[in-house]
Structures are given as C-alpha cells and as structure tokens.
Amino acid sequence: MTDRNTQRGEQYFGTILPPRETYPEPELGLTTSVVLLARRWRSILDEHLRAAGHSASRMEAVAAIAYSAAGATQIQIAKRIGIEGPTLTRTLDLLEADGLVERLADASDRRNKHMRLTDAGYRALAHMFDICADLRDQLLAGLPETEIRQNLGFLRMLMGRLDGGLALQRTHPAPAARA
Questions:
Q1: Cβ(103)–Cβ(74) below 8 Å
Q2: Which structural domain, as residue segments, surrounds residue 118?
Q3: Does a structural domain hold residue 73?
Q4: Total domain count for the chain?
Q5: pLDDT-derived band of residue 4, with 50, 70 and 90 as boundaries?
Q6: Does 174 score more than 90 pLDDT?
Q7: Where residue 93 sits, what CATH number does that domain have?
Q8: Is residue 35 part of a domain?
C-alpha cells in the first residue's frame, strides 16, 4: 500500500504542480512562513494571556479601542482589527461584562455604539502588553535593531499591497471534473 501511495500522483509533480525537489520555491516559502509565524505567535501569546484571564482576541479589541480616535464605533473597531462586526460583538459583550469597556449610545444615530475603555480596561491592556512584551523580547532576542527595522519596512510594504487589494492577473480555469 505504501508504494502505491508513493507513486500515486507522481505525474502531477513538475507538470501542473511544482517539482518536489524545489518545493517550496522562495516566494511560496516566504508567504507560507509569514502565515505560520503569525499563527504560532498568536497561539503562544494566546496561551500566556489565557493564563492571566485574557486572550489574544481580547487584547486586539481592547488595544483597537484604546488607540482609536475618541468616539470610534463598533463597526470602526471591527474594521481596524480586520474582523466582522458580529465576531467583535461577542468579544465586546464579554469585555463589557468584565467592566473593561463601555458602549455609549450615539445621540445622532441610535444604531451606532461608541466604544470607550474603562480605567479597568486600561489597566488590563497594560497587563496584556506586559505579557506580550516579555514574549516578544524572547522572540527577538539577539536581533540587531537595524535588522528588525529593515524587516518591519518590508512587512509594512507587503501589508500595504494587501490593503490596496490584489487581483488575479491570469485566468485560472477550474480543473476538469471527474468522469
């Protein structure tokens, strides 16, 4: 069975799929590494924040509120984080129940809610940032500041391209259906 599985699909490598010998090529390796790095970082951060009664999603929401302009709405906060409104609503419900955020009614549009951190919210965010800083210091230990700044510039450039939107430049027909 092993030989059959090893041989299965061999005709695809180097034809419609990249050859096994060169997979992944540097461009794919870079984008894959960025995704894996982000997932692993968030997982480790989340693990340590949970031990302190928080989570990465809570930290993102609280930080987005703290660093947004005064009177930012739930919708604006969700866009800043890059998530859908209903996903943020559940997180905000929990943060509000814990006394970390307040939802304030918009006098001109009752459908909007403006977000504001409480004093407890600012203290909680400071605690979450301390945990994050400790982990980040370990992750970046020994890297020269010039290298960090250079890589930050590169990643910001890629983020700008993503924020600007990407479109397919070639036609990608669907594979033929099975008979």
A1: yes
A2: 40-159
A3: yes
A4: 1
A5: low
A6: no
A7: 1.10.10.10
A8: no
Residue type, 79: K
Residue 69 located in a structural domain: yes
* Phi and psi angles of residue 13, each rounded to the nearest 5 degrees, phi first: -75, 125
Name every residue whose Cβ is closer than 8 Å to that of residue 54 and which is 6 or more positions away in sequence: 124, 127, 128
Per-residue b or e along 69-89, where b marks 16 or more CB atoms closer than 10 Å to that residue's CB:
eeebbbebbbebbebeeeebe
Give the pLDDT confidence of 101-151 residue by residue, as tens digits.
999 887 887 777 889 999 999 999 999 999 999 999 999 999 999 999 999
Where b means 16+ CB within 10 Å and e means fewer, 23-38 reads eeeeeeeeeeeeeeee
Distance, C-alpha 176 to centroid of its chain: 35
Residue 171 located in a structural domain: no
Query: Percent helix, strand and coil across the chain, each rounded to 5?
Result: 60, 5, 30
Residue closest to 88 by CA, chosen among 99, 77, 97, 104 = 77
Q: What are the DSSP E strand ranges found in 40-122?
A: 101-105, 113-117
> pLDDT confidence of 71, banded at 50, 70, 90?
confident
